[in-house]
Amino acid sequence: MVDQALEILQEKGQSALIDFLTVQEDVQSMADTCGKLAMTLYNKEKDIANSILVSLLGIRRALESATALAIDEENAETAYQLRSTAKGIAFNLGANMWPGWNDPGISLSKESMAVGMEAAHTNLRLGEELRKEPLPLSRAQWLIGAHEMALGNMDAARERFGRASALAESVEAEADNLLCLGYAIMTQLIEEPDNQEMIERFKTVKADLASLEQGEFFITQLDTALGVFRS
After folding, report:
1. Which in 17, 77, 155, 214 has the greatest CB count within 10 A?
2. Closest by CA position to 42, among listed 33, 34, 32, 52
3. Is residue 26 scored above 90 in pLDDT?
4. Which residues contact 146 (CB under 8 A, 6 or more apart)?
5. pTM here?
């Protein structure tokens, strides 16, 4: 359905796409399609506006349906899955609307980043309501911290990174814990670029990450974000 939806958008425009998606009777399939289409629009088409539109449409439809279904306890599992899907879309929207990736061809407005911050909070709220495990909650806290850092709110960012680190540590997710510690240090380096203690601590975090699964990806992420926010 993703290819069909993309074709409709390209050939008939935004209104036709909205009509196509909203008439889908299978809400779970529709929400899944919105999530996948939003990522395609972001990664391949570099279409920020429609990526946001489709994400918000999927989140809203999934949550509205989940609320209606939750009235009957027999539908609790379906409602939970729909809310989980909405949470996933919200996380990706929040992440994509954060400038720290420095993705080629992507230019984010203040309005787009504000949407990303709101999506990050939605992701955390749903994670807590659905009683998700500590690691997704850690990543939800990290995402809000990342947006606070982008706004220049370093104290608020450090608080979120601290919460994220503690949650990751509680389940021995070492790479995520180190990543969050790295971001907390990064806030100091943005404020004090010549702080030798923070420079050395940042190097130590990266050295510790190097031997871990996903470590190299996280190191690149830290270096890229630092380059974005120190420039």
Report:
1. 17
2. 52
3. yes
4. 98, 100, 120, 157, 183, 225
5. 0.97
